[in-house]
Amino acid sequence: MKSALITGITGQDGAYLARLLLDKGYKVHGLVARRSSDSRWRLREMGVEADIVYLDGDMADACSVQRAVIQSAPDEVYNLAAQSFVAASWNQPVTTGIVDGLGVTHLLEAIRQFSPHTRFYQASTSEMFGLIQAEQQDENTPFYPRSPYGVAKLYGHWITVNYRESFDLHASSGILFNHESPLRGIEFVTRKVTDAAARIKQGKQQELALGNIDAKRDWGFAGDYVEAMWLMLQQDKPDDFVVATGVTTTVREMCRIAFDHVGLNYRDYVKIDPAFFRPAEVEVLLGNPAKAQRVLGWKPKTDLDTLIRMMMDADMKRVAKE
Fold this sequence. Notes:
Elements: E1 3-7, H1 12-23, E2 27-32, H2 41-45, E3 53-56, H3 62-72, E4 76-79, H4 86-91, H5 93-114, E5 119-125, H6 148-167, E6 170-176, E7 179-180, H7 189-201, E8 208-210, E9 216-217, E10 220-221, H8 222-232, E11 240-243, E12 249-250, H9 251-261, E13 270-272, H10 290-296, H11 304-321
Parallel strand pairs: 1-2, 1-4, 2-3, 4-5, 5-6, 6-11, 7-10, 8-13
Antiparallel strand pairs: 9-12
Helix pairs in contact: 1-8, 3-5, 5-6, 7-9, 7-11, 9-11
Cofactor: NADP(+)
GO molecular function: GDP-mannose 4,6-dehydratase activity; NADP+ binding
Domain NAD(P)-binding: 5-311
């Protein structure tokens, strides 16, 4: 039985990845920081909460990270832990830098010292491209991050490359473009839209305030993307891969799909609020997943229409129970 350690296991990707690994027969450990609120609801939604071995720890604390690596004796480590909300990174730039940047070093150093055979996955992000330097971004596109989140993630990405090249670790990074699901946090724009559409349809909300609805993103399904993470660690050689759909869509069009699903016209309810615009806006992100398709044999299975309708159905049921 293989052993895996997932940091950020209580997040969207962590829950989907945990289920994938358990289905493949892994013993799954999850690094979990102590919180007063319920942080395991996504794992319950996936039906895997009782199947995880939980380890106390925090990415900002090197000792607890080392202890988790030693206790789990992992064949594979998936570092999904992050302060992952871009807007919040402007309000918490230091915390974002510590967790999303320095925390990666804590984990890599623990692997180097105590478990050098372990294969490591780093969750990088399309936000590292920021002010895009190419119409479609691939593994060779220069980075130009436009937020503390993007900058911190870029540190995590490059420290992974450096540990791979300096210490011969099997360390790979997945440069994932936007990926969503019914488990996505309500603060993210996709869930913000589907939740609002469900509430407006059921008379529990009157309008939806958004920022730049003409921003373009490459959206996929988190359940598809965690498979790419696993595939990276099954390769003979570590490498970096863009994981994306190769299709870009505006926030406006995503709103249309969501509201259409419940028989509403988004134009009647979506209001533009300048307060939601970023200090340094990222207008377009569009990934080129050709390398992932060629090397990993990975392709996305879920288009945006299907994804948004899946999220709408889940939010309609949830809101109706409130």
